[in-house]
Amino acid sequence: MIRLYDNAFSPFARKVRMVLEHKGLAHEVVDGLRRSTHDELQRVNGRVEVPALLHDGVLVVNSADIVAYLERVFPQQPVYPASDVAYVKARAWERCADSTIDPICIDISYWTWAERPDVMPEGLLDAARRDLEQIYAALEAQIGDFGFVCGELSVADLALFPHLVSVGPLKAPIDAARFPRLTAWLERMRALPICAADLARTRAYLKGTRGDRDIERRRIFWRGDRIEWILARGYHDWFVGEIEADRVIWPGLGVPGRG
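The structure assignment produced for this chain is given below.
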């Protein structure tokens, strides 16, 4: 049996859940980001972050490692391309989604869902738009006439989708005139059953958790890549202010074998 600790708002957990569904693997799900499940998640992942996956006594954490494990154990309906070149590109785009696009999107999202005493720092949205447009341009060239990022549906598409479907609501939209292939890709992804199911879960989660006190909204969990982007764009003072105001949650060590 597969147990997935996830959250319908986490792009990393969403990627893993879409991979499970793409492969047709039965699984049970625990929302690991509720206050009431905090201790259970901490026992399986010392960093106290989702996703984490348990399968027949094997524990895997980190979304990329989970996908690699699932591909190794359940090779049917592969999410890694067969060719070496496409494989390298798919892994590179997965990494870009996880460590470059995620920090930008998440760092400008706090004012849409968190309990904030302030407004977004001046210039932060413009910085996000500039950086994201570089990624949009690279994807426009990468997609070409393939339809998907690496020629066939792969982990690259499933990693990118949760992030790029959010850029419109975050006011950093993809310009259809400048990026027609990327726009077509996004619509193609939306139409896939696993992506439609992902969007339905996320919408239901956001609607159902309004006012839910079992969800932490004041203190924000900061991953290293998200800190890196906010500091690299010059918002040192703002981030120090967050620490001083006790609005920061730090991940645990996550030492293997210790949970």
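Interim note for the steering committee: Strands lie at 2-6, 28-31, 52-55, 58-61, 220-221, 248-249. The mean pLDDT is 95.
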